[in-house]
Automatic annotation (TrEMBL):
Keywords: Coiled coil, Signal. This is HlyD family efflux transporter periplasmic adaptor subunit. It comes from Marilutibacter chinensis. Gene3D superfamilies: 2.40.50.100, Helix hairpin bin. Residues 1-23 form the signal peptide. Residues 75-121 form a coiled coil. The keyword Signal applies. Residues 78-185 form the YbhG-like alpha-helical hairpin domain. InterPro entries: HH_YbhG-like (IPR059052), UPF0194_transport (IPR050465).
Amino acid sequence: MKRTITRLACGMALILLSACGRDAPDALGTLERDRITLPAPAAERIVAIDVREGQPVKAGERVMQLEPDRTGARLDALQAQVRQAGEALAELEAGPRSEAIDQARAQLAAARAQAADAQAYYARVEPLGQRQLVSAAEVDRARAAAGNAGAQVRAAQAALLELEHGTRAERLAQGRAAEAAASAEATAQRVTLEKLSLVAPRDAIVESLPYKLGDQAPPGAPLAVLLVGDAPHARVYVPEPVRAGVHVGQRARVRVEGVDAAFEGRVRMIRSEPSFTPYYALTGEDAARLSYLAEIALEGDAARGLPVGLPVQVEFVGDVP
């Protein structure tokens, strides 16, 4: 009788243990924080690193400094081009000098005098040519000289009118555009020079510094990776059978490896596309292998000091309130 009772007790214990084993969490993942990257604005050598990995930094605090000499020289050259374009525009806006206008008037007067002399000579030679007192060639030369002198008068008149009318509106527009383009290039170079001093855009913790002092990273390479946000979040993969009951805003209970107490949280994001295996390559029971990336924001001040990377287990509670 005692053996029978003992066997029944062991069987019940095994059943209970089996039931507990089947009570698995809805999703597994790790504890993470939002990350921001400070990229290299230019291919310059790192001359100073002011922080270390794991160090908290305040917004605006310098993280590292890149060599500014070449970028600063380029900025000086562009600023000189801006001044040159500005002076050229000022010259166009001022228009021709009064001395240039006086010179054009004098040239017009000289051209008129030459034209009058050439016309008078032709007037004297033409009757003589008709009476064959001078050669026809001489008459032709006099006629050509008179016509050329008249053309010189018209050219001098046009040059004087051009000066008196001032600079064309189209040339002024071109001058303003050239100055604006030079100024924009100088501004862009100034921004690049300022970015050579990398600062934290917000309060953060330095996660990693991929490059060391003296390295020269290519443009766009991550020089520093920062962890931001007041508290970490759980980044988990939701299995396909559970996905239909999980929504943004839904309450969840998060258990962190090594921490006795569970944390309350809410789903802040869940992907609509599955991870890993594409859905069109699965059939039948293989569909259960689908998983969807989700993030659960932890609530409460107790979660603020938790380190990233710890394994977590998430149980979704209820539905969206």
